[in-house]
Amino acid sequence: MQAELLLRASNLSYSAGKRVILDDISFELRRGQITTIIGPNGAGKSTLTNIVNGLISNFDGEIERAPGLRIGYLPQKVYVNTLMPLSVSRLLCLTHDSSDQEIEHALAQTGVSYLRQRQVRSLSEGELKRVLLARTTLGQPDLIVLDEPTAGVDISGEIRMYELIGELRTQLQCAVLLVSHDLHLVMSKTDQVLCLNQHLCCSGIPESVSRHPEYLALFGQQAADSIAIYAHHHDHEHDVSGDHAGHRHD
Amino acid sequence: MTEWLDDFLVRSVIAGLIMVTIAAPMGCLMVWQRLAFLSDTLGHAAVMGVGLGLLLEVNPLFGVLAVALLIVFSLNRVTRFNTALSETTLAIISHTGLAGGIILVSLLPAQSVNLEAILFGDLLATTTADLTRLLVTTVLLLLVLRHYWRSFVAISVSREIAQAEGIEVRKIQLLMYIMIALLVAVMMKVMGVLLIAAMLVIPTTSARLFSHSPEQMVLISGFYGLGALAGGITTSFQLDWQTGPAIVVSATILLLLTLGITRIFKSHLH
After folding, report:
1. pLDDT digits over B23-75, tens only?
2. Which of A3, A107, A133, B83 lies 20 to 30 angstroms, CA to CA, from A118?
3. Which of A42-46, B62-66, B79-83 has the lowest mean pLDDT?
């Protein structure tokens, strides 16, 4: 039985002026699954996540969201407003109420409980990322959208963050949509990979994507090998078959 | 029953108090969202509104409100979701509005307009009708602020996060613009069109120096606003200074004092 369908994107296209940014992208997000978007710079990764989370509305194609879908969002760049006094715990209740315990628990998960009373404007980039990751877990999200969550985080923090994302998916029973550059770190936890370069080059489970000619053309053999290594650590069942959905060759 | 309102000083103090009450939360939100320059633009363009109002023989306040609303609706159409208002656009609107307004006003018979009162405010000439308008608008704005406070704070922190997590950012933004237009229209009487932004920005900046939460900053700005008002009315009454400029100068003196005191405290701690 397939997990609950949370979001279906059908034939998404988006252009800025004459420049095509996304061309005919289709995929599904299901509860309990981690979907990773990979692709070179300018491939349209952030644009795609912005369509998913409702920031961009003037696209072609269709997005169907499960009714009442709650999203937790960690943007790639957060502009910290130095003019605004805001504590970390207050930032965590920005769009919904959370109890003190929930806040404490969320911060503990990303290892930043000690920042709780600090002002947001005094945080380093890495600290802010961890705080923002903690906040996406509050408010019972159905879908967590993480755009480059580890940018600015040190390497040990990075590994811990990906482990955590894997745990969160189980704990919160939510779907995760992840944009990442760190191919080898991401892959072991990923259920579905969308390899993007304006169009969907290939998609499916990591192993099948890593053998796909377009993936190899984009990232090279080394990247494929690193996925192969991590693939051995897979310890969970795949809910989707590893088919090459949205196969397109021009 | 309302005889006590007959005293012009009582009326001015009440008008000032009402203005401070609404300037604190609105000023904070505008500073957080970097919209202070918009209030300046609307203020300058308000001169055009005054001119139009007088020309069409309606209350100048309606002229001001019409011009301000026209500007904010146009800005709302042309701005994209996550780009800030263009300073160039605002500067063009601002100065064209002021220049056009002054020409318009100069076409009118001299005795019908007091240009100085428009530009720098005339708190001591507050009428009972002015008071009523100020009060009604302020209560309305406060109710909207209370109802949408979380959304306003959320879009001040991050429009992206707010939108993704279910807040209708564009609607909230338009609402904010309309509120600023209303605010400018009512504050004009007290502060004068050129000095509205000062009253929204200076007390807020003082408050920011030692606030730990958004609400605390609003509250402390209110107290700084009160201080500036007291200083302004006193000097205006005793030394015959114009009220608007007197209030602004008082607000700045308070800011400088605060800066000095926090410096001293910090150096003592180290």
Report:
1. 999 999 999 998 888 888 998 898 898 888 888 888 888 888 999 999 988 88
2. B83
3. B79-83
Name the residue among A53, A73, A94 with its Cβ closest to that of B157: A94
Q: Which residues pair with A36 in a beta bridge?
A: A178, A193
Q: Which residues contact A120 (CB under 8 A, 6 or more apart)?
A: A80, A86, A87, A88, A91, A128, A131
Query: What is residue A227's predicted lDDT score, i.e. its pLDDT?
Result: 58
Residue B81 with chain A: CB contacts under 8 Å: 55-56
For residue A107, the domain's CATH number is 3.40.50.300
Kindly provide the b/e burial profile for residues A70-98, where b requires at least 16 CB atoms within 10 angstroms of the residue's own CB.
bbbbbbeebebbebbbbbbbbbbbbbbeb
* A79 in reach of chain B (CB within 8 A): yes
- 3-state per-residue secondary structure call for B209-243: CCCCCHHHHHHHHHHHHHHHHHHHHHHHHHHCCCH
Predicted confidence at residue B178, as pLDDT, reads 93
Q: Are A59 and A51 in contact (CB under 8 A)?
A: yes
Strand partners, B75: none
Asked if A73 lies within 8 A of B165 by C-beta distance, the reply is yes
CATH number of B3-196: 1.10.3470.10
Which residue out of B30, B77, B165 would a mutagenesis test of the A interface target, given it has the greatest number of A Cβ atoms within 10 Å?
B165
- The secondary structure of residue B172, as a DSSP letter, is H
A49 neighbors A178 (Cβ within 8 angstroms): no
Residue B220 confidence (pLDDT): 97
Q: A158 vs A222, which has greater pLDDT?
A: A158
- Does the CB of A247 have a partner CB in chain B at under 8 Å? no
Which chain B residues in 6-35 lie under 8 Å from chain A, judged by CB atoms?
31-32, 34
Q: Is the pTM of this model over 0.90?
A: no
Indicate the number of domains in chain A: 1
Residue A168 and residue A199 in contact, taking contact as beta carbons nearer than 8 Å: no
How many residues in chain A?
250
